[in-house]
Design brief:
single chain; about 625 residues; alpha/beta; Rossmann fold; GMP Synthetase, Chain A, domain 3; eight-stranded mixed sheet; seven-stranded mixed sheet; 21 helices; 30 strands; globular; binds 5'-O-(acetylsulfamoyl)adenosine
Length: about 625
């Protein structure tokens, strides 16, 4: 019996039990029946969380693009694979068939090869949401190069850090990008970044906005003429199951961003299987995930998961507010979207606007609504359910991480009864555990603790690029023999999970993970700043916004405070990106610290969140007197 497509709750429980009681035979069956392999595995799973080492489908050989493209050609050659919806609604959408996509990917792969890119080389992709981004990602996978997509909203400094961390040889970018009414000159950002990246030998430039840019002789090449003359067939590189497929950076609570490494076979199997079930995708459906491919959601659920299922996946270049707040719904109507997947921050932003923006459009095609990226508050959940789903489309609140590669806890629509704000049940094969303060697993229901996963799943990240020790310390050191997620969660009376949020120093702003450390580093580089600490505070639309507590140096004391605030945010914009700008900046004489010198963010969080009545015991602080001062002058 194939367990590939789950349609009933009883079936879910039965398949779940099977996946937990006998994970190897379960995943073997899924892998065998639904994918094409150049060679099958010798062993399904080998693992040891103490090292940590995880291998799925050991010694199997495959190429993920043969699964996403070639195998569909006989049956789905003319079916739309990629449906590109441009920023400007007046520009025509592009329906790129599986045959066309295969051709484009092969051409791009040949261009990469012509520029000396080989299996194992890292290629940085810094592109807006245009079809070339999907071509580039898949072209890398075609030849076994490791893609590192950097979200095109990141600054030059953030880009160069990521290029250098994994020694990228090539950057693929565009002249510029459209974001609503704005255009951004991407190439000039790349030019600045590359001043610090001596190893980058070539830059391929897609043309999008047509604005004037500088081309460096010998290094920079326009992509179009190269693609046009490239051969449209390219034999797929035979990859080992555990060869790296891509690196994707995520912020840590300390230090530089972590380059999470995902490998070929397990990632493919798990993203495809979750996509099929969690979106209940059927052959004629049009699926749309509004994320950017610069994030894991875009990798797994715009590109790989949908294409591995032969789906039609929408790729949207624009923003929800352009030309007006009805854009999402206009696109849903226009392309008769069946599954729609977005972030709570977007839902909250749209819920603030006039309902006419929604009511103008026919949303009757919708069957499944998804959310991801942060906890969805009850109000937003109901707005989404009432106004977008008209109470007929189940909401799948999907909890997962860059590190997990695929969705981990989520309802299966039309199968799992939903409850607002609950991600509900673990997906097939996922074994969550809640841990208490003493590192014991909490049994039973109606409990709350730190969320761990106690058994490997196929799409888990295998390491942090260049730093396996950090991988172990971050995820496998807190609890023996378990993967620690960094999130807190509760399990209710029926066993449903609700994610309560991060328990570390990562703050999620508008669905983007921001580490406090890099932002503080950036603030501290300002000549007038001595030290700083940032925390999140609740924000209606963004979920969390950033509040900075800044200690000025002597030289800063006499300066105009509003100007300083502007300069600090300018500096953050340049070094990290506008998403990391602070909403509030309070200048303070000191920061509450423990005796070992650790900033007590817990206290600052309460002050920033206007919840400072009960700060708990502050007597153990090094400097309890600053707390009152900070509290009295809070913004
Ligand atoms: C997919 C993605 C991961 C962090 C994660 C959580 C938070 C994500 C949900 C959620 C509550 C959800 N990857 N998170 N999904 N919290 N409910 N449905 O977002 O690496 O960028 O972020 O996001 O804290 O640890 S990510």
């Amino acid at each position: 019996m194939s367990n590939y497509h789950i349609k009933q709750l009883e079936e879910y429980f039965q398949v779940y039990r099977k996946s937990v009681n006998n994970p190897e035979s379960f995943w073997e069956e899924i892998a065998e029946e639904h994918f094409v392999w150049r060679k099958k595995w010798d062993q399904v799973l080998e693992w040891d969380f103490s090292k940590p080492e995880v291998k799925w489908f050991k010694n199997a050989k495959l190429n993920i693009t043969e699964n996403c493209l070639d195998r569909h050609l006989p049956t789905r050659g003319d079916k739309t694979a990629l449906l590109f919806e441009p920023n400007n609604p007046k520009e025509e959408a592009q329906h790129i068939s599986y045959r066309k996509l295969h051709e484009k990917v092969c051409q791009m792969a040949n261009v990469l090869k012509d520029h000396g890119i080989k299996k194992g080389d890292r290629v940085c992709i810094y592109l807006p949401m245009i079809p070339e981004l999907a071509f580039a990602v898949l072209a890398c996978a075609r030849i076994g190069a490791v893609h590192s997509v950097v979200f095109a909203g990141f600054s030059a400094t953030a880009l160069s850090t990521r290029i250098n961390d994994c020694d990228c040889k090539m950057v693929i970018t565009a002249d510029g990008s459209y974001r609503g009414a704005k255009t951004l000159n991407l190439k000039s950002i790349v030019d600045v970044a590359l001043e610090d990246c001596p190893e980058v030998k070539s830059v391929l430039v897609a043309q999008r906005t047509g604005e004037k840019i500088d081309m460096v002789e010998g290094r920079d090449h326009w992509l179009k003429p190269l693609l046009d003359k490239a051969y449209s067939d390219c034999t797929a590189e035979v990859m080992d199951a555990e060869d790296p497929l891509f690196i994707l950076y995520t912020s840590g609570s300390t230090g530089k961003p972590k380059g999470m490494v995902h490998t070929c076979a397990g990632y493919m199997v798990y993203t495809a299987y979750t996509f099929k079930n969690i979106f209940q995708y059927r052959e004629e459906d049009v699926y749309w995930c509004t994320a950017d491919i610069g994030w894991i959601t875009g990798h797994s659920y715009i590109v790989y998961g949908p294409l591995a299922n032969g789906a039609t996946t929408v790729m949207f270049e624009g923003v929800p507010s352009y030309p007006d707040y009805g854009r999402f719904w206009e696109v849903v109507q226009k392309h008769k979207v069946n599954q729609f997947y977005t972030a709570p921050t977007a839902i909250r932003a749209l819920a603030k606007e006039q309902l006419e923006h929604v009511e103008k459009y026919d949303l009757s095609s919708l069957k499944v609504l998804g959310t991801v990226g942060e906890p969805i508050n009850e109000e937003a959940w109901h707005w989404y359910n009432n106004n977008i789903g008209k109470k007929k489309s189940p909401i799948v609140d999907t909890w997962w991480q860059t590190e997990t590669g695929g969705i981990m806890i989520s309802p299966i629509p039309y199968v799992t009864p939903t409850t607002p704000t609950y991600a509900t049940l673990p997906f097939i094969g996922i074994q969550p555990a809640l841990m208490d303060e003493k590192s014991n697993e909490i049994q039973g229901n109606q409990v709350e603790g730190r969320l761990c996963i106690k058994f490997p799943w196929p799409s888990m990240a295998r390491t942090i690029w260049g730093n396996h020790e950090r991988y172990r310390d971050t995820y496998f050191a807190a609890y023996e023999n378990k993967y620690f997620t960094g999130d807190g969660a509760l399990r209710d009376a029926v066993g449903y999970y609700r994610i309560t949020g991060r328990v570390d120093d990562v703050i999620i702003v508008s669905g983007h993970n921001l580490g406090t450390a890099p932002i503080e580093d950036s603030i501290n580089e300002h000549p007038a700043v001595a030290e700083s600490a940032i925390v999140g505070f609740p924000h209606d639309i963004k979920g969390n916004a950033l509040y900075g507590f800044v200690i000025l140096k002597e030289v800063g004391q006499s300066r105009d405070r509003d100007n300083l605030r502007k300069e600090i945010n300018q500096q953050i914009t340049e070094q990290i990106g506008p998403i990391a700008k602070l909403d509030k900046i309070q200048f303070v004489p000191g920061l509450p610290k423990t005796r070992s010198g650790k900033i007590m963010r817990r206290i600052l969080r309460k002050i920033a969140g206007k919840d400072a009545k009960n700060l708990g015991d502050i007597s153990t602080l090094l400097n309890p007197e600053v707390v009152k001062e900070i509290k009295d002058n809070a913004l």
